User: Fold NitT/TauT family transport system permease protein from Paucimonas lemoignei.
Amino acid sequence: MSTQTRLSGLHKKLAFALAVVLILLGWQIAAWILPDFLMPDVPVVMKRLWEEMQSESFRAALWGSLIRLGSGYGAALAFGIGFGLIGAVLFFFREVLKSAIIILQSIPSIAWVPLFLIMMGFGNLPIIVVVAIAAFFPAALSVMNATESVQKVHVAAARVMGASRWDLLRRVYLPAVMPELITGAQLAFGNAWRALISAEMLIGFGKGLGRSLSYAGETADMVGVMTSILTIAILAPLIDQLVLENLKHRVLRYQYV
Assistant:
């Protein structure tokens, strides 16, 4: 790894740490200005979070959310990447899918909740489907847009050598779109995470971080509200940096040499 790359990574970490400090400082200033029952102090919420982490209910809520997130996000990536690659060799399919995505992605994912509740009833399934819808659009679009930039000379050369459509997808398109695919996966994760919390708050089924936040608001427990918000804010970048960013570096390691 070059010195420039190491410095760039260090600068990113310093920038992230500074952003965290500024957010906490702004929060604490607001707590000093507002009454305690409206905005609790940062140390009070930190203490509550530590206590909650020791409880079984907190762990149940966390695992419930992560299982729903993993199910919906995983399905979205599988279908998004699959359809995006199919669109590379089936032009008409790509145009139809892209037009459908442009139309449907203008609808907030949370707007589908009433429909899915009627169709599927209360349970994990409507939340998972909402998460999958939110993550599918950026995943599919990123792959489809990337396939359009694949050099035609590479495709033509593969066809001359007798490559089938499956060979084109596996040996030409997939390696070429990998950088955009990983970026699309990170964008899809952000959409999936926000859809998960919103759906859990609205549906109010079972254990989940969104449900915990909603319940704290309903009972006017502002320390609980801020604790849930803090948990949500911590988990998203942790998952993104520890899982997705590491995956990005492993898959695209030739770019970080």
Observations:
- The CA atoms of residues 138 and 187 lie 6 Å apart.
